[in-house]
Design goal:
- The protein is 72% helix and 0% strand.
- It is mainly alpha-helical.
- The protein starts with 7 loop residues before the first helix and ends with a helix.
């Protein structure tokens, strides 16, 4: 972002621009995502847009950051912090529901962000990635399988497997299928139980 909005009116303008840009990106894709188009949908001048964002990639990054924040919010209700009495099956079901909810917020936008928008330096996602992996480590720790190996590596393996399934399903438009949810729960439980048995 070129200039951080300090006043309430400036923050509202930035929010309007990012909301409009989100709709434009989801509908038109990256190739037809233009600052003129965003400004027209937002009802602001291109000059106002350029006060805050130097180019369309900076706007796309603001959209991506909001999406990542939504992912963490959706996962926050996924059973983390449950009492010890909550069965592993229930924890995993809640976790899967959170992951699916996070990726169902706007499937068209999600596809464009994954498939079309260029990535900037990965370092800008370090905070998100650390928190995201912490959620997976908490799930692994809750399965009482820590003695089987490195929980951090297990969290990365499990998150990669889940992301692969969920991103492919989002790409095909299958995220809402009950069978997908069931199979994802089975996949995670099988992994966690195998680690328990290896302990």
């Amino acid at each position: 972002m070129r200039k951080a909005p300090r006043q309430q009116r400036s923050r509202v303008t930035v929010d309007v621009i990012v909301e409009a840009a989100t709709r434009v990106l989801a509908r038109r894709g990256w190739a037809r995502f233009t600052t003129n188009g965003i400004a027209a949908v937002a009802g602001v001048s291109v000059g106002s847009l350029y006060q805050y964002f130097p180019n369309k990639l900076a706007i796309a990054e603001a959209i991506r950051q909001r999406h990542l924040d939504e992912v963490l919010v959706a996962l926050s209700g996924s059973g983390e912090g449950d009492s010890e009495a909550v069965a592993l099956d229930q924890r995993v079901e809640r976790f899967v529901d959170g992951v699916i909810a996070a990726h169902s917020v706007d499937e068209a936008l999600h596809r464009v962000l994954l498939d079309e928008v260029p990535l900037v330096a990965r370092s800008s996602y370090a905070e998100f990635e650390a928190e995201y992996q912490r959620r997976y480590r908490a799930l692994i720790a809750a399965s009482a399988s820590g003695a089987a190996g490195d929980d951090e590596t297990a969290a990365r393996v499990l998150s990669s497997a889940v992301e692969g399934v969920v991103h492919a399903a989002a790409h095909r438009g299958d995220l809402g299928l009950p069978a997908l949810r069931s199979e994802l729960v089975r996949l995670i439980l099988a992994y966690l139980r195998d680690r328990q048995q290896a302990a």
